[in-house]
Amino acid sequence: MSVSAAATQVGSLLTDQARTVLETTSDGVFILDRDWRFTYLNAAAERFLGRGPGELPGLNIWDEFPLAVEQKFGSEYHRAVRTGVAVTFDESYAPLDTTFEVRAFPDHNGLVVFFRDVNDDRRLRRQQEAHAQLTRAILDSLPAHTAVLDSGGTITSTNMPWDAFGAAAGLDAASWSTGVNYLQVCQRAADAGDRDAAAVIMGLKEVAGGARASFSYDYECSTPDAERWFAVHAVPLLDHEGVIVSHTDITSRVLSERRLRHQAHHDDLTGLPNRRRLLQILAEAMTGQDDATGVAVLLVDLDGFKNVNDSLGHDVGDALLRDVATRLSAVACESDVVARVGGDEFVLVAPDCDGDAATALADRIRASLAKPFDIASMHLPTAASIGIALSRVTGGRPEDLLRDADVAMYTAKARGRDRSQVFSPALGESAHDRLALAAGLRMAVTRGELFLHYQPIICLDSGAVCEVEALMRWNHPERGLLFPGSFIELAEETGVIVPISRWLLAEALRQVAQWSRQGLEVAVAVNIAAQHLSLGTLFDDVSEALGVAQVRPEQLIIELTETDVARDPERSAAQLCALRELGVRVAMDDFGSGYSSLGQLASLPVDVIKIDRSLVKDLGTISAATDVARTIISAVTQIADSLGMATVAEGIETAEQRAAVTELGCTNAQGFLFARPMTAHDLVTSLPLTGTSPSAHAAGGPSC
Ligand code: C2E
Ligand code: MG
Ligand code: MG
After folding, report:
1. What is the mean pLDDT of residues 624-634?
2. N or C: less crowded end of the chain, CB within 10 Å?
3. Are strands 480-482 and 523-527 parallel, antiparallel or unpaired?
4. Which residues pair with 476 in a beta bridge?
5. Does the beta carbon of 590 lie inside 6 Å of ligand 1?
6. Each residue's pLDDT tens digit, 48-99
């Protein structure tokens, strides 16, 4: 009998039932006889060992797989046969490039061996471990504290930031870590009234149930010590067997958004609501107003604030605005709102406030602002013009209330400043008139409606006319003769002042040339607006006008106010110096009317100081104000004298005033006492013009 036939005989000892079982199992099974020959292999065994059906039965295992003898296969099979005890081991077999898990059972016929390829299992396990490690590394690397929940809401794992957050917040691990039901924690907070917690529960349940792909929600988690916000974000696990919930600290984002929102609605300098926010506040106040009384809007505009800014600098101006904001807030009631809507414009919104109450409030504001402000070692008095608009009168939208308050405020300014004015429909019409006036002014030059009056300036020593000041007049087609007080400011606001100013130069010099031809040599002083100076063309315009009129530069005096020069000192100084080098004189007009600085007098590039009427008007009377005025005038004349400048006392109406300014050292004077402004014709006929040479006044002031 052949070896293979004998082996087959041993294999045939298996019952059909056992054979069927063995053929269907996925494990490899083979049986060896006591001479190590295969007597049976199931199909899986032949496949694992890489042999065809029926190829191995009858053959010796060590002949067929010689390397295996030296491995556990050799040693363990022999041990099993020798001891009669089953063995179990794992061993790889290089020629087959695989690893087997082996169980061998000895019996008196030989050895029954069960084995299976465990390469795939191991690979799978290794993959699973690597996957788990990767997942954990990703979880831990997330800055947000994150937990994985099962579908019932129980925390199955957490990342390191989660644990760190819990520890930092002093949370008990038992209420915070793996095993705790996250939804139940939220539910307890929701039961205590936390609406955010209720929203989070709903969102998480929807994600877990597949109703939505993700859920995000921002919530506040502030403590008395610190404000904090978090964004909770939930996504389902891939198998929908749970949810990943992360909590990102968004405190800095929320705070910066808040800051931006605040900045968009508030004024940087004072921290008060700005115009945009004011309109919202007004809309809310108008909705909730008591119809019987209504809302009052008080527009507070500081008088002469530009002077403070120009003369004392922007730092002082800013400090003043901040202090004004504080005082206005102190005057306001709790239900009132104070806002800043422009440079020196503040608005106070007073709900349930009628006209009388608003006027009383405006009086309190003015009284509060009248107390001097202590800024940079100075006591600055401040006044304000206040326009009041009432929702009962204006009705309409918040913008309409502000517009009417603006009209009322302008009226208060026009009526002399430092007062309040309640808006009425009649005022609205006059604002309309103002616009019409501005339009007319634009055409006044071309229509020949402007003309000049001339007022003599007297030399106090001799009583002779030494020069004349040109003062503009407007022959309005409907309103008749208008004085500069009613249109110069409007001309400056609307920019018409520059063409008007050029006309003024040409006309004044044309007149001087005509007087020269009549044998009268007189210099003319013209008032130049700040805008003309800022434009930078003053020197060219003056040179051109002198050339066209054929007038010598010495016959022209340019008058500017101190604040005009202070607006842009360097640019002004350059132009004024160039004019003075040409021979034109420069006069500082209205000195003492604003925040004039005696200290700065010496550095002004001017030849003449004109002392304002406000300092002169009390001279000749006995009062404390007179003493102050005398001291100031005396200081100005002394400084001017030492610098070789002339001084003109403005607004002299009485002989006492004339005597006083003469005694105080003024060189020249101007005022109704000597002559009122008059036409060029009247001037020639009524006054004993002496033909004073302009060179009688040596040019003084700091040289350029
Ligand atoms: P100002 O340059 O200080 O001119 C003097 C003003 O005082 C003139 O007023 C004059 O009529 C007035 N006045 C003169 N003596 C007396 C007096 O004894 N008592 C009183 N109460 N007033 C006196 P006016 O003509 O109404 O001009 C007012 C201001 O308008 C001028 O003040 C000047 O700042 C400005 N202005 C006048 N003409 C022009 C101009 O052509 N261009 C520019 N930009 N401004 C001008
Ligand atoms: Mg003047
Ligand atoms: Mg003046």
Report:
1. 85
2. N
3. unpaired
4. 480
5. yes
6. 999 999 999 999 999 999 999 999 999 999 999 999 999 999 999 988 888 8
pLDDT of residue 127: 86
Longest dimension (CA), the chain: 168
Q: Is 476 helix (H, G, I), strand (E, B) or coil?
A: strand
Report the alpha-carbon distance of residue 636 to residue 614 in Å, rounded: 15
Residue 194: count other Cβ atoms within 10 Å of its Cβ.
Answer: 15
Q: Give the pLDDT score at 698.
A: 42
> Is-contact 296 386, C-beta < 8 A?
no
Kindly write down the DSSP assignment for every residue of 153-193, as one continuous string. Answer: SBEEEE-HHHHHHHHHTT--GGGTSTTSBHHHHHHHHHHTT
- Helix 195-208 and helix 182-191: axis angle, to 10°? 150
Q: What percent of the chain has pLDDT over 90?
A: 61
Quote the CA–CA distance of 465 and 148 in Å, as a whole number. 100
Highest-confidence segment of 3-7, 542-546, 561-565: 542-546
Any idea which residue has 């008059």 for tokens?
Answer: 678
The preferred substitution site among 473, 474, 527 for testing ligand 1, maximizing ligand atoms within 8 Å of CB, is 527
Cβ–Cβ under 8 Å, residues 420 and 366: yes
Could you tell me if the CB of 669 is within 6 A of ligand 1?
Answer: no
484 lines ligand 1 (CB under 6 A): yes
pTM (whole model) above 0.70? no
pLDDT over 90 at 476, yes or no: yes
Kindly give the distance from the C-alpha atom of residue 469 to the centroid of ligand 2, in angstroms, as a whole number: 7
* pLDDT, tens digit, 9 for 90 and up, residues 169-192: 887 777 788 899 999 999 999 999
Atom of ligand 1 nearest to the CA of 532: 44
Q: Give the three-state DSSP class for 556.
A: strand
Atom 38 of ligand 1 has which residue's CA nearest to it? 471
Does position 253 have pLDDT exceeding 80, yes or no? yes
Could you tell me which of 488, 534, 525, 500 has the C-alpha nearest to residue 670?
525
Q: Which of 445, 454, 471, 619 is the best mutation target for the ligand 1 pocket, counting ligand atoms within 8 Å of the beta carbon and taking the most?
A: 471
DSSP line for 326-390: HHHHHHS-TT-EEEEEETTEEEEEESS--HHHHHHHHHHHHHHHHSPEEETTEEE---EEEEEEE
Contacts of 247 (CB under 8 A, 6+ apart): 144, 145, 146, 165, 230, 231, 232, 233
d(CA 374, CA 594): 17
Name the one residue in this structure whose structure tokens are 């400084």: 639
Query: What is the per-residue pLDDT for 20?
Result: 83
C-beta separation of 118 from 101 below 8 A: yes
SS3 state of residue 97: coil
Ligand nearest to the CA of 617: 1
Q: Tell me, what amino acid is at 277?
A: R
Coil, strand or helix at 123: helix
Is the CB–ligand 1 distance for residue 431 below 6 Å?
Answer: no
Mean pLDDT on 469-477: 96
Q: What is the CA radius of gyration of the chain?
A: 51
Do 500 and 445 contact (CB within 8 A), yes or no? yes
Identity of the highest mean pLDDT range in 13-17, 412-416, 520-524, 565-569: 520-524
pLDDT for the residue numbered 701: 58
Residue 386, strand partner residues: 300, 420
Judged by its nearest atom, the ligand closest to the C-alpha of residue 486 is 1
Structure tokens belonging to residue 323? 């202090």
Cβ 657 under 6 angstroms from ligand 1 = no
Looking at ligand 1, which residue's alpha carbon is closest to its atom 46? 527
Tokens 């590039």 found at: 605
Our answer on whether the CB atom of 471 is closer than 6 Å to any ligand 1 atom is yes
Dihedral of CA atoms 152, 156, 160, 162 in degrees, nearest 10, equals 20
Calculate helix-pair angle for 275-287, 398-414, nearest 10 degrees. 110
